Amino acid sequence: MTDSIIKIENVFKEYKVPDGKNVKALNDVSLEVSKNEFVCLVGPSGCGKTTLLNIVAGLEPFDSGKVTMHGEGIIGPGPERGVIFQQYALFPWMTVRKNIEYGMKFLRNANGSIRFDEKKKREIAEYYIKMVNLSGFEDSYPKALSGGMKQRVAIARAYAQSPEVLLMDEPFGALDAQTRAQLQEDLLHTWQEEKKTVLFITHDVDEAVLLATRVVILSARPGRIKEIVDIDLPYPRNQATKMDAEFIKYRNYIWDTVYKMFLEVRK
Amino acid sequence: MAAPHQRLEFLTEDQPQRKKVRRRLKDFSDGSKKVRLALNIGSILLGFLLWYLITLIPSINTFLASPKQVFAALLSESAANGRYFKDIWISLQRILIGFGLAFIASIPVAFLMGWYPRVRSIVEPWIQFFRTIPPIALIPLVILAMGLGEPPKYTIIFVAAFLVMVVTIYQGVKEVDKTLIKAAYTFGASDRDIFWDIMIPASFPFILVGARLGMAASLTTLIAAELTGTTFGLGARIQGAQQFMDTSIVLLGIITIGIIGFMLDKILLLIEKRLTRWK
What we know:
The complex is a heterodimer of chains A (267) and B (279).
Chain A: E1 4-16, E2 22-34, E3 38-42, H1 49-57, E4 64-69, E5 72-73, E6 81-84, H2 96-102, H3 118-131, H4 147-160, E7 165-169, H5 177-193, E8 197-201, H6 205-211, E9 214-219, E10 224-230, H7 245-266
Chain B: H1 4-13, H2 15-27, H3 33-54, H4 58-61, H5 67-78, H6 84-115, H7 117-131, H8 139-146, H9 151-174, H10 178-187, H11 191-226, H12 234-243, H13 247-275
Helix pairs in contact in B: 5-13, 6-7, 6-9, 6-11, 6-12, 8-9, 9-11, 10-11, 11-13, 12-13
């Protein structure tokens, strides 16, 4: 794996908490993510998963280390890295279509001109609305959608920007079990149809093993990489994959590791 | 172990309780539209009837005109040589100018306060302080400074509406969902884009709530401002009629103010519904 897109090198990050103490959120974290890899970050709560993702997204400063994309330092947020939030973050005053079109207005050609005109934006939005199975809801406002549908809009919105990297922060964490299962399959399907490099945070080990090509286990306080597990299961995967003996082996192993750390932190 | 039939009995006995809980929960909803409207109208009619009945007592009628007398006052005041519409127009003008200026001024101030912590620290103590003072208390000072014309009225209304609106809109700006701002940044939005595309529409509902509160404040302050130092306007009319013990005109003025306030609020409510359909 030489063609790494995202490179995180020796990143340290401390938080000041109100009572004056410093909490080490990330302690010497290094990670490389290659093109079209699907990397899941798992770990007990408080292990700095979200902090790490925000740092890659360019939304949060860090204390020391290096975070690069294609060898260039990530200095802030940018359209080449799409972010999907647990709380959907749809603009409630925009319809589904407008939400999906929104990000495209910031895309520029090499010469600085606007990349897509209104017609082209609409076409692209149309395409992704179909891809996430939301035809018929183009003109609905987010409030009229279920949680699962909202997250599908968010995924379509991120895809419409055609980012190289997708950063997903527990995107299915707020959904019920059935919707979550369905969205996992949809995401796998979408990802295979149009490959992206994905960094995906979850506390659900089953979800991580089902989706990922690699699972990165983070330890809590200080947050550091405990172990990286390559998931050697063939794609396409679906919910039935969870019955697979191999799947269960991976799942049990990672679950044990995470749970042990969780108990240690509790002590 | 209890026999099954005993359990069943217990359940049926329990029904009134369940129904009560259900009813209680339902009471918090608005009920059917028809029932609501019927009760509204019935209540108003009953009020008029009570009003009419107590004014049949002569000792009460000396200081409280009957509905009939108020209606007669309405006819004479709105006749060709009456001043009813002139009073209404002047009062409305004062509200709209004072409120309008306050509306225009409060939005940028509220946004600056929400966006820049330093501006907030500079402006907030003044707003908090002046908010505790009833704007009416400023009337003597404003009259001394500006005389008896229209500007002092605009000023008083402006102050009252501005303070209410700044505080409400600022709350809205502060409560804009931070995830939306983050999301916009990840698309590559600039600060300027964030302001126009996110902050403004996201705080729109608060702007409209602020406008309604500001409008209510304008109306209260207007009447107070008109009670002294002016000959026209609804407040002045009420004050003038009091001198002649003409309670029918006083009541007509009060009811008119109520109706104007109600209508202005309904207009703003309608705008709110139209513009924030996404909510």
